[in-house]
Amino acid sequence: MKPVLYADDDVNDVFFMQHVWEELAIPNPLIDVNDGDAAIDYLTGNGAFADRAKYPLPCLLLLDLSMPAKTGFEVLRWIRAHPRLKTLSVVIVSGSNQERDVEAVKQLGITDYLVKPTTLNQLTESIRARLSLWLPETATLKPAS
After folding, report:
1. Is the pTM of this model over 0.70?
2. What mean pLDDT is reported for the chain?
3. Does 30 map to a domain?
4. Which is nearest to 5 in space by CA: 39, 36, 35, 37?
């Protein structure tokens, strides 16, 4: 299975996303990076991510908007400017519910926009409800408990 790249600088958000990934038994490996520069390095296979056997191109990018180095906006603009990555599915997972942010990234062709829920249960249920849009090839997930 192709991996899903998760770019977020908040270690708590990464921890919770990893937990949800395991809880829902999503077969795509979740690989996390902590800033926009690292996301671009991963996507281009630069630096620590040069080994494409170990770090294959992802089928989906989960992208926070507010990160150090390059913001999610900058990463998304960079992706859309590169023909090889132009069709990469990108889901924004952000704390921002500002309409201007949502509209700005919609103009750049995102797959979905998820405002970060405040509880782990809400995050689990939000991802469960959206996963067929994000990863259409994913097999049926564990039912809600």
Report:
1. yes
2. 92
3. yes
4. 39
Q: Is 40 helix (H, G, I), strand (E, B) or coil?
A: helix
Q: Give the 3-state secondary structure of residue 63.
A: strand
Query: Six-digit token pair at 64?
Result: 């926070």
> Which positions ≥6 away from 42 have C-beta within 8 Å?
5, 31, 33, 49, 55, 58
14-47 b/e with 16+ CB inside 10 Å = b? Answer: bebbeebbebbebebebbbbbbbbbbbbbbeeee
Residue with tokens 């992802």: 58
**Number of structural domains in the chain:** 1
In which domain, by residue range, is 75 found? 4-134
Is 140 part of any domain?
no
Query: What's the token pair of residue 42?
Result: 């991963």
Chain segment 64-112, per-residue pLDDT in tens:
999 988 999 999 999 999 988 988 999 999 998 999 999 999 999 999 9
Residue 144 maps to a domain = no
* Partners of 31 in beta bridges: 5
CATH code of the domain in which 20 resides: 3.40.50.2300
Alpha carbon distance 69, 130 (integer Å): 29
